[in-house]
Amino acid sequence: MRKLHISSVKPGDIVAKSVFLENGNVLLGLGVELTQRYIDRLVQLGIDTIYIQDIHTDDIIPDEAIRDETRKDAVDAVYKTMTGLMDQPLVKRRTSLPDFGSTFQKVFKEIITDLSSRRDVLVNLSHLHVLDGYFFHHAVNVAVLAGVVGLAKGYNQQQLMDLGIGALLFDIGMTQVPKELWSQKLELNAEERKRIQYHTEEGFNILRGQYNISVVSAHCALQHHERYDGTGYPRQLTDTNIHEYARIVAIADVYDALISPRPFRNSFSPSDATEFLFATGNSYFDLDLLKLFLQHVAIYPVASTVRLNTGQVGVVSQVNSLAVNRPTIRILQEPDGSNVASPYEINLYEKEWMSVTIVQTM
After folding, report:
1. Which Pfam families match (predicted)?
2. Total structural domains in the chain?
3. Does residue 239 share a domain with residue 143?
4. Most CB contacts within 10 A, which of 128, 157, 288, 332?
């Protein structure tokens, strides 16, 4: 399969990876033949990339960090919890979901079990969902990314659980923000921005009163918008005054937000997102944690379509954990734009290809 921007997809292409609704159910399933109507609908729903079948890349399959069943269970739990809390007054909110801590313990245990079995695999978040599902799928992606960092740091089971639950529920305070504010395309005014920023304190207040959720997990909600140099909110904390779990969640939050389409912009490529993160190390983020994070993320994920500085176009067939910016590329198109008769692969990590670089993700 190969991943393409929606603008490059045409009627007759076959879906190679399902697209999901906000609650984790399938919107467009594997094997569906795309029509112009389907393509227009995907654009309308905020899908800016899609995986399609291709005879030259049928054997190229992204290796997900967690199983589809695990992801569906996690998204479903987040969806039910978040929607159950939306638009509820404070008193009702505190009694409506008396023990969702145990639910998320079970959910994150499944996530960490999957991650533990694939610790040598660079994380590739290839799951596609509609724009309205960002809130719920984003929480699961942040938990996956945070879990990878926790494992890399050698956290014990309790530490991983506290981090994971904090990551799954870090944005729970957004359930109390009017949806039109966090989904609008226009720039926020000062009052609207202040209202959204208050979600960190609301999330902390929700979580710290919940049974089976630790205070350190609740601090992921409170501190995930704090920045290493003190420019964040709500308390302008600096460096290690920010809890380590919150520092990890902050990195995962921004990375997944960048690679996801939003109402006000298209998604960034993983390579552009990682470049942004690295440029802000030790100003926005803990540089040591950031380096650890970037060691476990695929800058050019398997199945990505890329253009090389030679003018050739190909698909990433294999990532290299020793040099994440030097994957193996299956060449499909020559510099003159002609399709190759027999696709061939070049390993950018090998000496003979060291002058070849990726210049664009397509």
Report:
1. HD_5
2. 3
3. yes
4. 128
Compute the distance between CA of residue 28 and CA of residue 31 in angstroms, rounded to an integer.
9
Q: How many other C-beta atoms lie within 10 A of the C-beta of residue 193?
A: 13
Q: Supply the range of the domain harboring residue 149.
A: 68-294
Give the β-pairing of 358-361 and 305-308: antiparallel
Give the whole-angstrom CA distance, residue 245 versus residue 163.
Answer: 6
Distance (Å, whole) CA 65 – CA 140: 11
Residues 84 and 199 in one domain: yes
226 and 255 share one domain: yes
Q: Is residue 60 part of a domain?
A: no
Residue 24 tokens read as 């984790």
What pLDDT, in 10s, does the model give residues 322-360? 888 899 999 999 999 999 999 999 999 999 999 999 998
Kind and range of the H or E element at 361? strand 358-361
Q: Are 19 and 133 in contact (CB under 8 A)?
A: no
The whole-angstrom distance between residue 276's C-alpha and the CA centroid of its chain comes to 15
Rounded to whole angstroms, the Cα distance separating 215 from 361 reads 41
**What is the tens place of the pLDDT at every residue in 118-129?**
766 678 776 777
Q: Write the CA distances from 316 to 56, 93, 326, 348, integer angstroms.
A: 12, 47, 10, 11
CATH, residue 30? 3.90.105.10
